[in-house]
Amino acid sequence: MATTPNLRLRPKGDQGLVHDVTPENAGWTYVGFKLYRLNAGDMAEAETSDKEVCLVLVSGKARITVDGQDFGELGARMSPFEGEPYAVYVPAGATWRAEATTALELAACAAPGVRGVYTARVIAPGTSPQITRGKGANTRYVTNILPETDPAHSLLVVEVITPGGNTSSYPPHKHDVDNLPHESLLEETYYHRFNPPQGFAMQRVYTDDRSLDVAMAVEDGDVSLVPRGYHPVAAVAGYDCYYLNVMAGPHRTWKFHNAPEHEWLLQP
Questions:
Q1: Domain residue ranges of the chain, discontinuous segments joined by +
Q2: With the CA atoms of 113, 116, 251 and 140 taken in that order, what torsion angle do they form, in degrees rounded to the nearest 10?
Q3: Which is an annotated GO molecular function term of this record (predicted)?
Q4: Arch. (CATH architecture) of 8-266
């Protein structure tokens, strides 16, 4: 009997580095994701080596430096449901440091990078304004933090807010075949938050042949892994769902394939 993979990761504690997804422990090639929860005055720092990193201030404020360049205190929202984020792009071969000036939730989104091509920069709210996607009970609100049109080597970062009772990443779509221009191969992580925090959502990760078919309830602070297949999310009524997506693959473009049996949902 095939073993069902563990695609839902709970945070490891309440403080410090509570998520640490690497290509090695995820069993894939490209995407890394770390999540730090810090008190005011606490610090996180790392050297990017051969990775590029996008630091996303999920909530709270921090003073961020990259290779000694001080970007000052960044951050405006104290909850991911309170507006658009601040982020900082950190190129490969650099060292970053974040000193929390309030309670802070900081995501470090990583993928393969190249040295000497890109420079560190702040990605301020409004750089890519929030857009509305879908209609009716499939409405959700999308902020492209690091889209394919902005400078980077392989990393794509986006956050989505789905109102309670609505579906997201829906109709089911996938991006697990390197078949451009029709479909790109992208691994993906989801970092989930809920408002109020006792909420949850249902996420299913499955392939056409059902060789992978995992349904899971994701709760506040969970990370879900999407190594391949379709991956819709349904937020339960009464609880808005936030998720931060990290994607990367051999080509830095998002070309997806909808599940054909559900494409009728896109008809006017």
A1: 8-266
A2: 70
A3: isomerase activity
A4: Sandwich (2.60)
